[in-house]
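Practice record 12: protein with adenosine-5'-diphosphate.
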Amino acid sequence: LELNLVPVHSENGEFAGVLLVLQDVTAVRRLERVRSEFVANVSHELKTPIAAVKGFAETLLSGGVKDEETARSFLQIIFDESDRLNRLIGDILELSKVESRRVPLVFSPIEIDAFIDKTVQVIAAQAEKKAISVETDLEEGLYVEADEDRLRQIMMNLLANGISYTPEGGKVLVRARSLDEDHIAISISDTGIGIPKKDLPRIFERFYRVDKARSRSSGGTGLGLSIVKHLVELHKGTITVTSEVGEGSTFTIVLPVLQESAITG
Ligand code: ADP
């Protein structure tokens, strides 16, 4: 609780008394702390690629690199790190939008099996490169009211993770089923590296990565799952994960069939 004394004056400017204002500031403080932690994280994440770009550009500019092959490899690093910066900034902006709920969702009825088949086709090329098969097991006739672009974003993120954290020759399985009259469940399972028990509760936190080096080399920013979780929650849904190290992971989204706003108009 925070106590504030506010002097009160009468209309002719004379001192009339003091107003006591008691305010519960814990929520405000918590928000401030979360915000400043976020800014610190963001700065740290941006500094690494910027330092690389700057360092390699400096070396090239100094004229110390004589052979062309080395020069090209330095330029490639500069290019890759700029690309990474671009992705980071894109994800940071996206996260800040979904966190502050500044995303207008446009709900429409979506037929789940056709929607998932289409989404899987888009990601197929990425899976083929690693000889990963993407299979589906979809109950027919399932509909949800959702923002189609956002739902695709959720699915693409989880599918991309499944492919990225699964070794060559593995499998990703997408299932959809009705849970009860009002809810459906979509799960994305992989036969990948899995997630250690101790990390499971934290993987939806922004910038949290089980293995930084691995996430970096696969182009990850550590923001994907935070964005996904917010998007699922904007749909009044939930997301959970189960995993076994060395065997694979399953992410399950439960979504209400109808959105409240859509029911009440
Ligand atoms: P990233 O950009 O690093 O993939 P995410 O927010 O998408 O960030 O995921 C956070 C972390 O969770 C990843 O760095 C990885 O350690 C772990 N993770 C996410 N999906 C999977 C998966 N399907 N299998 C194993 N680990 C995963």
